[in-house]
């Protein structure tokens, strides 16, 4: 473990030092360094390469982080999102050893045929095609030593995070800690193939009424913690759109089914398949979706599901007050975040998404600008939503690869409306009950405010971003005052020297210097304390009727 720790440390140290220098020119003190976009893009590429070099634990963790705009700036998200979970396959001899250790007999006594060439090789396991009891199967075999490696890596990552949290106070580090804690829990479930077979059974039951999805059949008698055997399914990868069309498959209908399947999982069942990358989704010739790999399955409680539905419908109605309240209730936005700025951001993004014919590239461009501003806010995504956002991003990515104007939000709104109607039909008094709960909450908050006023203990909390901006504003004003005083002192000194020496040259030179300083103080503007000029600029464009995305 010491050797592994040193390897991780020497790989990570140059990046930790580089990011520290961004904040302090001389590490412990000094102003922020100005970095160009090209510099950030280059560093993001190098970071991606080093993460791939560090192996499975870091690759899997980074795949979760690559959807988290509250932790990493967009330029790094764009680079890390290209990091694929693909590694060189292990040898056939190593596969045979795992099979022999699990079954206590040679692999050729278990399988009638076994393809030595792997179908897929990922960080945690690899898959081989085989024949078992006369049926074509896929055998998923865990990589030797992966459990111990992941355990050691997580100890090192947690230790490094502990040190950084002691040295620096940052909401990004706190959010990263939440992600790592959730990842530490789910990665062991993902490595336990008996747990995966349990997830398959659950989905077979949950999806039994849907004819557009195939949950794979597995073989419990040859499934162990390190080996999973499922029926082999012939199909086309969902992102192979040309092949799908040649096979006569209606891609739009398949994508609609995919959205409906995930909407049901997340909003109705509260149990969803959290790893929908294209390699795990096949389409059969009769347009059925085969969903593979159930190692990563996440559960959502009823309260979270209900709030997700209400928040989605608030966005569809453009009820931004309820939308922002949903952000707060779900824990997506900290209560300290300015409601006004969140509302402005939501209005702009919904205006953009509602435009007809807008390209995904242009949406991403403006979204990256928006996320740059969001990065300055203390967003701390709760652990139960870490993988929900990752899953949503992956499903959205599949759609946008096919159609430039694909918009999952538009497609999911009718489904959510239907779910709400069904819920109200089952419980007609539910809406009244919700409104009464809201009124009770308002009454309770009003009483608390009045009690606080009576105690003369009413306090206002200023957002940390506003404090830092105010500090910079005051510093600029102070520097201007010092410059003005220096200009006046120079004028006084050269005037006194002129009285004694009668040197017109000194007087003119001194007054010119003093005048230039005063001119600079007057002409150079003071930057506003509110630095989110993106919203102001986009808002002005929107009021003028100009496309916010046009150059």
Give a description of the structure.
The chain has 551 residues and is α+β, with helices and mostly antiparallel strands. It has four domains: 2-84 and 147-189, no CATH class; 237-337 and 377-426, no CATH class; 427-461; 464-537. 61% of the residues lie in helices and 8% in strands. It has 20 helices and ten strands. The strands form three sheets. A four-stranded antiparallel sheet has the order 1-2-3-5. Strands 4-9-8-6 form a four-stranded mixed sheet. A hairpin with a 2-residue loop joins strand 2 (125-132) and strand 3 (135-142). The longest helix has 38 residues, at 464-501. Mean pLDDT is 79; it is low at 527-551.
Write a concise keyword list for the protein shown above:
alpha+beta; globular; four-stranded mixed β-sheet; disordered C terminus; four-stranded antiparallel β-sheet; single chain; 551 residues; 4 domains
